[in-house]
Amino acid sequence: MHSSKTFDAGTDPEVVSVKQLLKLLDKSAKSARTYGAKNPVAERFFRQFYDELTKHLEQYGQLAFLIQRNQLFFKDEVVYQPESEATGDSIAFKMYADGIRELSFHQGLSREDLSFFLEALWGTGSGDAAGDKPSVEDDDDDIVTRLWAKNLSTIALVTAEELVRSSGFGPDVLELQTQGYMNQSVTSLRDILDRERAATAGGGDGGTARTESDASQRFQLHVVGYEVSQQELEALTKEIAAETRRDGMAYILDVLTAVLASEPSHALLSKLFDVWEQVLDVLIRNGQWTVLETVLTLLQDIEAVRKDLSESHKQQVAGLFDGLNRPERVKAIGLHLNRNQDAKTEGLLTLLLMMKKEAVPALCSLLAGLEVPAHQGIVMEALQVLGPEHPESILRGLTDKRPMYVRNLLTLLARWNNPQFADQIEKALRHPDATVRRDVLRLLASLRPSGPGNRLISLLLDQDETVRLTAMKLLATGHYQASFQHWSPFLTQDGFLDRSPAEKRAIYLAMKQTVGDEAVPYWQGLLTEWSWTNRKKKEELALLAADMLGKLATSAAHAALELGQKKGGAAVRQACGNALAAITRLQRQHIPPAANG
Question: Assuming Cys at both sites, which of 36, 192, 368, 394 could form a disulfide with 262, CB separation 3.0 to 4.6 Å?
Answer without folding.
Answer: 36
